[in-house]
Amino acid sequence: MAASCFSARRAFINFYDHYLLLLVIIIGSSNMVLCDNINKKLGFVRTRGPHFILNGSPFLFNGFNSYWLMHVASDPSERYKVSEVFREASAVGLTVCRTWAFSDGGDRPLQISPGIYDERVFQGLDFVISEARKYGIRLILSFVNNYDDFGGKKQYAAWGRNAGGSGIQINNDDDFYTHPLLKDYYKNHIRRVVTRLNTITKIAYRDDPIIMAWELMNEPRCQADYSGKTVNCWVQEMASFVKSLDRKHLVEIGMEGFYGDTMPARKQTNPGYQVGTDFISNNLVPQVDFATIHAYPDIWLSGNSENEQMGFMEKWMWTHFDDSRRILKKPLIMAEFGKSSKDPGFSLNERDLYMGNVYRDTYRFARLTGGTMSGSLVWQIMARGMDSYDDGYQIVLSQSPSTAGIISRQSHAMTALSHLFNGPHSVDRVDGAYKIAPGHHLHSRHAKKHNARHTHPSRRMKNNQLHS
User: Fold this and answer.
1) Helices in 171-252 by DSSP H: which ranges?
2) What DSSP line would sit under 285-302, residue for residue?
3) Is residue 374 within 8 Å of residue 61, measured between CB atoms?
4) 333 vs 119: CA distance, rounded Å
5) pLDDT per position as a tens digit, 88-115
6) How far apart are the first and last CA of the chain?
7) Residue 332: strand pairing partners
8) H-run or E-run covering 47
9) What residues are labeled active site?
10) 319 pLDDT exceeds 50?
């Protein structure tokens, strides 16, 4: 049975690849995405209902994560690695990059202590943004980490404990979401980043259209309240605060997609546990412009077969896509996915097959609705000579031609789809495109529910420790 499933899946992907190739030929040059973004005036990415809009037309994309860009660019002698990644990414049509705009305490920090910043590191972020403009790659910038890597909410809690003074009591790291002092620290960081004047481009961050969106936190979780209500109050406050500083850019939360108490039946979609977020209520906050999901079935369902993990992935994508178009009425991005070389039985062929499946579903869902599922961001692209950052998921495009080919085909397929929806009435056409009948489902297979409580790795620099 497993062999027949894989044979069928491979046959479908072969057909899918030929279809994408045809679309690329119809659209034209492989450099079209880069030329479009550089040669025409940059506009801000907007949303209209469940769609991204750029310069009045639908915006669909393929993208990537490179969390380390600012950290590396803070050393001018290492900046060529940032340029290399942007150059190689643009060559395969990647047009959106998600990266960190934080490093709190620890090694080479941006924020040394509350309100105290290292200008050299900030200039590293200036360089990242200026290089992104050079290659026409839009950025999603994240403000803080849920995990300990690069400080995170744990560092904020430690700063609060060390602040001294009577009446200051920090009980645990999740006080980050509720304690007034920690919230003030965080708001100050948001203000410093959003209002920053780039020393290279001379453009304030909040006025720069190469920045696509602000992300409140990388993978928020709250062990103190699994219902999602604590995180929801925090999202309402912080998303509103960002909008008070910057009305031009989009805001998203940075969520993985775990369901909470709003729709109890949806909890069965989770991989056997909750993390203190609620995909529905958190993303219904009016100041949140679009939703995100992350997916690591190789970690969340590590004891399950390859077929079961892929079944979970398909259901995870479909369920969130369906909820985004029907309930949230906001765009959705698959903001992190990948396959680790540290997984048992890993091979480049398996990684390519897995990525091909995710890309196939991203494209299918985008085509069904004109872009509710608007793009996906693979974790993660690196430059050569970055072994110390190896988390198992890294892709060096120049050293992985088969993977680079799969990425390139998806990039141009999403661009081709954008052009199919373009025209004098492109947005109106998208709004009415490909109506899905109630009760219709694309996937007949369902992921096996995993009841064991799993931990989650940070997948960040030099840290293989698991986080619950």
Assistant:
1) 180-194, 229-245
2) STT---EEEEE-HHHHTT
3) yes
4) 32
5) 999 999 999 999 999 999 989 999 999 9
6) 34
7) 291, 373
8) strand 46-48
9) 219, 336
10) yes
